[in-house]
Amino acid sequence: MKISSYIIFLLLMLSINADAQQRPHYTQYIFNNYLLNPALSGMENYTDVKLGYRKQWTGIDDAPKTSFVSANWSLGGEYLWRNALSLPEKGEDPMSRNYMQNYTASPAHHGVGVVVVMDDVGPLSRIDASLTYAYHLQLGQRLNLSVGVAAGISRIGLDINALDFGPIEDPAVRNTIVSQIKPDLGVGLWLYGSSFFAGASIQQILPQKLVFTGVPTEFSTGKEIPHFFVTTGYRFFIAEDIAATPSVMVKHASPAPMSLDANLKISFKDRLWVGGSYRKNDSYSGMVGVNINKLVNLTYAYDFVTSQLNTVSNGSHEIVLGLQLNNVYEVLSSNKMW
Fold first, then answer.
1. Signal peptide: which range, if any (predicted)?
2. Per-domain residue ranges for the chain?
3. Whole-prediction pTM
4. Residue 68 contacts by C-beta under 8 Å, 6 or more apart in sequence?
5. pLDDT per residue over 256-284, tens digit each?
C-alpha cells in the first residue's frame, strides 16, 4: 500500500470514528455519575474525589486506555443535611434502614467541581478538562432536583511518530494536523432522594469539526457529536444490613446504535459491596468495592466481552480510588447513588 493511500485510509477511519461514540466508556459510572452529569456537583456532605484507570480490551495492541481524576464539593460552610433526624451519628452506617426512613432533603445549595479525563486509542489521544457547577433545589421534605453545567476544553492529538510508514517520507504527513483544541459544553439534570435517583445529561453540545489533514478531501467531514445519557435507579432493603440497588442507563451518540445497560449492586452494611452489569450486544461485568475507612474506598470491575471482539480480547479492567475529604460525620460512605 502506498504511504499516501495509508494516510487516506487512516483519515477515513478517523472520520468514521468521529461520527460514532467519542467519549470514553466506563463500567463503574454508576459509582461516579458525576463523570457523565455535572448536576451531581456538590451533592454529598464531603468533598468527593475519584481517581480511576481503565484498560479496555486487553490482548489487543493499542486498545483504549483511560485515566481520570474528578472532584466536586458544595459551596458554603453549612452542613447539607441540618435536620438531626436525617443524619447518622459519627461512625454509624449512613445507609441503614433507620437512616433512610428519617431522611430529609438537603437545603438548597450550590456545588462546583473539576473533571480531567485522558483517553488514548492507538495514535489518537484526547484530554478533556471541565469545570462544573450545579444548583440543588429542595422539592418538599424528601426530594432534591439539581441542574448542572460543565464547561471546558478538549485537546485531540494525533501522534505521527506512532505511525510507521517506513524510511520514505510522504508529503501527506506534512499536511497532517497533529493537535487541535476545541471548546466543550455539557448540561444535566438530577432528581434524588433517600432511595431513588433519576438523571439526564448531554455531553459535547457544541458542534466542532474534527479534521486531521490540512488538504481538503472527501474524508475531512469528521465532527464532534452530542452524547445523551438517561439513567434511573432505586435502593431497597433485603435485610436490615443488606441493600440492593438495580439501575438502568440508556446512552446514545448518533449514528451509533443506542446502548442499554442494566446494573445491580448488593451492599453489606455499606462496608463491602458486589455488583454486576450487562450491556446489550457488548459485554457483561462483575464489580466489587470496599469502603476501607471514613477516608478511602476502592472499587474494581472486569468486563467480559460478548461481541465478536471476544476472539481477540481478554476483557477490560477498571479500578477507581475514592477519597472522602472533609468527612465531618466520619461515616464509611454516604454516597447516595449506590
1. 1-20
2. 23-237
3. 0.82
4. 24, 35, 50, 51, 52, 115, 116, 117, 118
5. 788 899 999 998 877 888 999 998 877 88
Question: Cell match 466542532: residue?
Answer: 208
Residue 111 · residue 75 · CB < 8 Å: yes
* CB-CB contact of 93 with 269 (8 Å): yes
d(CA 320, CA 298): 6
Higher pLDDT: 18 or 312? It is: 312
Angle subtended at Cα 318 by Cα 246 and Cα 161, rounded to the nearest 5 degrees: 140
Average pLDDT, integer, range 87-116: 72
- CA dist., res. 145 & res. 141, Å (int): 12
Pull the grid cell for residue 251: 446512552
Radius of gyration in angstroms for the set of CA atoms belonging to the chain, rounded to a whole number:
22
Q: How confident is residue 9, by pLDDT bands cut at 50, 70 and 90?
A: very low
Q: ∠ CA 305-276-25 to the nearest 5 degrees? A: 55
- With CA atoms as reference, report the closest residue to 116 among 229, 223, 187, 24: 24
Q: Which DSSP state fits 37?
A: -
Report the chain's mean pLDDT, rounded to a whole number.
80
Q: Which amino acid is at 49?
A: V
User: Per-residue DSSP letters for 273-332?
Assistant: EEEEEEETTTEEEEEEEEE-SSSEEEEEEEEEE-SGGGGT---EEEEEEEEEET-TT--S
